[in-house]
Amino acid sequence: MAIVNVSDSQFQSTVREGLVLVDFWAPWCGPCKMIAPILEELGKQEGDALTIAKVNVDDNPETAGQYGIMSIPTLKLFKDGAEVATYVGVRPLAELKAAVAAHR
């Protein structure tokens, strides 16, 4: 399982290769805290097949702005650098697993 904190300067190199689920979040966000254990479980179940990248929107406004993040949590799934899916708000584990499986 790879859950990594990503900054503006690291973002493109992080999503460039493989399957990466990006969690745009902030520490003060209640729903962001609710989805954190779901993402941890997803990471455990997917192992090395998926990287989960966490982007703190307060600390990394450039990336959040580039992707038009208006609500958090927003999850964006990237495959080899291309954005393939977006989810806004807390999503159940089963829905996220299905999204990852569809793009594997």
TrEMBL record:
<dbReference type="GO" id="GO:0015035">
    <property type="term" value="F:protein-disulfide reductase activity"/>
</dbReference>
<feature type="site" description="Contributes to redox potential value">
    <location>
        <position position="31"/>
    </location>
</feature>
<dbReference type="InterPro" id="IPR005746">
    <property type="entry name" value="Thioredoxin"/>
</dbReference>
<comment type="similarity">
    <text>Belongs to the thioredoxin family.</text>
</comment>
<feature type="site" description="Contributes to redox potential value">
    <location>
        <position position="30"/>
    </location>
</feature>
<feature type="active site" description="Nucleophile">
    <location>
        <position position="32"/>
    </location>
</feature>
<keyword id="KW-0249">Electron transport</keyword>
<dbReference type="GO" id="GO:0045454">
    <property type="term" value="P:cell redox homeostasis"/>
</dbReference>
<keyword id="KW-0676">Redox-active center</keyword>
<dbReference type="InterPro" id="IPR017937">
    <property type="entry name" value="Thioredoxin_CS"/>
</dbReference>
<dbReference type="GO" id="GO:0005829">
    <property type="term" value="C:cytosol"/>
</dbReference>
<keyword id="KW-1015">Disulfide bond</keyword>
<protein>
    <recommendedName>
        <fullName>Thioredoxin</fullName>
    </recommendedName>
</protein>
<feature type="disulfide bond" description="Redox-active">
    <location>
        <begin position="29"/>
        <end position="32"/>
    </location>
</feature>
<dbReference type="InterPro" id="IPR036249">
    <property type="entry name" value="Thioredoxin-like_sf"/>
</dbReference>
<dbReference type="Pfam" id="PF00085">
    <property type="entry name" value="Thioredoxin"/>
</dbReference>
<dbReference type="InterPro" id="IPR013766">
    <property type="entry name" value="Thioredoxin_domain"/>
</dbReference>
<feature type="active site" description="Nucleophile">
    <location>
        <position position="29"/>
    </location>
</feature>
<keyword id="KW-0813">Transport</keyword>
<feature type="site" description="Deprotonates C-terminal active site Cys">
    <location>
        <position position="23"/>
    </location>
</feature>
<feature type="domain" description="Thioredoxin">
    <location>
        <begin position="1"/>
        <end position="104"/>
    </location>
</feature>
